[in-house]
Amino acid sequence: MSKKVILNTSEVVTCSGFEAKAGKAMMHIIPIKNGAILIDKGYITMVGTENEVLEAINLDDYEVVDAKGNTVMPGFVDSHTHFIFGGYRAEEFSWRLRGDSYMDIMERGGGIVSSVKATRESTLEELVAVGDKRLDSMIRFGVTTVEGKSGYGLDMETEIKQLEAMRILKEKRKDINIATTFLGPHAVEKQYKGREDDFIDFQINEVLPIVAQKNLAEFADIFCEKNVFTIDQSRRFLLAAKKLGLRLKIHADEIVQLGGAELAAELGAVSADHLLQASDFGISQLAAKKVIATLLPGTAFSLKEAYADARKMIDSHCAVALSTDLNPGSCFTNSIPLIIALAALHMNMRIEEIITALTINGAAALSREQETGSIDVGKQADIIILDFPSYHFLPYHMGMNIVKTVIKSGNIVAEN
What we know:
Oligomer: single chain
CATH superfamily of the largest domain: Metal-dependent hydrolases
Number of strands: 17
Low-confidence stretches: none
Structural class: alpha/beta
């Protein structure tokens, strides 16, 4: 039955809105006590109290989804991941635990070089299969929309292969939405060391046109960082991508304060990501230009680094999103409960701000705030039901998954 009604809720946390929420507005998650939701053909057609909804319909026309007295809220949006890659780096993680330096690991063939080698050696079919498995896990955590980046090829063939794997999954999977990002300048190819401008030329002149021509990506991204790509090189790449119709993202100010946040604001990027070292001026510019500040606490946790200053960003009227940064090196996790715990305990974020960051603001970081990220009439019915009667149980269950039911476009796609 295409018509469904969700009843018997303790509350419907709507996160209502069609644009990112900044500053104090991030607290506005707009719950409805004993709320109910009507769904038709995958879209939300009514939201209100249960009494209001039942008065408006003939219940016999609807399939009832019983929330069993629990909280209902929008599906999570994981807006920064690298979920398509080959190989693993588990041994390297153990080396780091015993104190080996990044350079020592690199000299042994570890680091991103290891992931690039494994991804180049993987077939398209192997990348699709491993991506399929990771998406299954994301859905069980309540993720209904996810972003995936290339960046573990660096060459033409493998970058295209990663993006093609995501396109295959995008067409195949109806239980999760996938946004795609081209991150060709994720690191510098060995033969281009000392010739980074030539590598940027290669990405601009050779790879970007193919990505655009084949419509393989919605966004372009670059790792703007000391000893990787400079502000000028990043600006040049991103402007070329923008000219070809791609929207912009940027890995900014993760390790040193380079000015990546300011560049994101200057170029009108959709999001600036990481931001552990962002300057006060950079933060103010992100707020002024309405660039989403996407924070990735799992990476700081894994690397034992200081966390991005979410409190300062929110108090400066930024719109903050949270994401997992699933990748093979610095953060091998897609655990939304872990991100919630880190944001609450180490980033001084209120649970209402965390929910906003993982729903409507995550959707805005993918230019999907008109389609998903909140429970509003006209939006896709991307909804999760928790196993408890209040959203306050999310941070209380530290690192534990309390998502019971996942609904994508009106269809139940997972039951935990």
